[in-house]
């Protein structure tokens, strides 16, 4: 059987992280969540007290991080320079810093080689914003997962109910704008990607659809 590379792109809270994890689990593929890399760079920039707008500082920090990923039992853990940062990178401030450092070409190029090498020779599900367009342009299956802003804001709000729905929605819209308008590798649907709108769909329905597409290509 031919093992393939599956690229999953989409905006924040589109469900792509969960979908990518489940698809990898069902197919027995390696999961590479590239958002965790940008989040870790954001975390380390904040910790170092550097400005997220300072490209040279952000790129230097990105290049200094040694990543290690472990995907077991459907859970992904990420180590940066020997420290498990899996939980800490999930915070809202780190997410905002990730989006800000991700605009810098120097940061993106520092992570690109690692991302490509993790794709190996297939048998991988990689999720992010620019996987189908830049990182793995030859991926056999490209998915662009979207959902309405309201639906995505509702999903995110469920994880952050201490905040107002309006604040969560506004922040998501700002993140969307930043991710789609940056000069280098902006979030967009690759020409040869299959667009899935998950508004009103369950995660399992989306997973089933993608797994069926993958199995057809794999045979
Ligand atoms: O998917 P996520 O929310 O964990 O990603 C965090 C930020 O990282 C996101 O706002 C944009 C950036 N990112 C990126 O620019 N390119 C990727 N391939 C993945 C994430």
User: What is the oligomeric state here?
Assistant: single chain
Helix segment tally: 9
Q: How many angstroms separate the termini?
A: 6 Å
Q: How are the strands ordered across the major sheet?
A: 2-6-1-7-8
Classification by helices and strands:
alpha/beta
CATH class of the largest domain: Alpha Beta
The CATH topology of the largest domain is Rossmann fold
Mean pLDDT: 95
Q: Which parts are unreliable, with pLDDT below 50 for 5 consecutive residues or more?
A: none
Shape: globular
CATH architecture of the largest domain: 3-Layer(aba) Sandwich
Query: Count of DSSP E strands?
Result: 8
Using the CA coordinates, give the radius of gyration. Answer: 16 Å
- Bound ligands: 2'-deoxycytidine-5'-monophosphate
From N to C, what is the helix and strand string? EHEHHEEEHHEHEHHEH
| Helical percentage | 40-55%
Domain module tally: 2
- Beta-strand proportion: 15-25%
Q: Any idea what the CATH superfamily of the largest domain is called?
A: P-loop containing nucleotide triphosphate hydrolases
Largest sheet: 5 strands, parallel
């Amino acid at each position: 059987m031919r093992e393939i590379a599956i690229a999953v792109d989409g905006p924040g809270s589109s469900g792509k992280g969960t979908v990518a994890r489940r698809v990898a689990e069902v197919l027995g593929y390696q999961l590479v969540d590239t958002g965790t890399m940008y989040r870790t760079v954001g975390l380390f920039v904040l910790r170092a007290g550097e400005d997220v707008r300072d490209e040279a500082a952000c790129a230097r920090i990105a290049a200094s991080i040694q990543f290690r990923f472990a995907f077991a039992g459907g859970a992904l853990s990420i180590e940066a320079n020997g420290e498990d940062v899996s939980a800490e990178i999930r915070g809202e401030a780190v997410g905002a810093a990730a989006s800000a450092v991700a605009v810098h070409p120097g940061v993106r190029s520092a992570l690109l080689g690692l991302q490509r090498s993790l794709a190996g020779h297939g048998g991988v599900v990689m999720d992010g914003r620019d996987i189908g367009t830049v990182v793995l342009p030859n991926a056999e299956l490209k998915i662009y997962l979207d959902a309405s802003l309201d639906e995505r804001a509702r999903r995110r709000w469920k994880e952050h109910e201490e905040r107002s729905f309006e604040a969560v929605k506004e922040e998501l819209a700002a993140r969307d704008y930043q991710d789609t308008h940056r000069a280098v590798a902006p979030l967009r649907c690759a020409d040869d990607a299959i667009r899935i709108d998950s508004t009103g769909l369950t995660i399992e329905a989306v997973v089933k659809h993608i797994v069926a597409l993958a199995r057809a290509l794999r045979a």
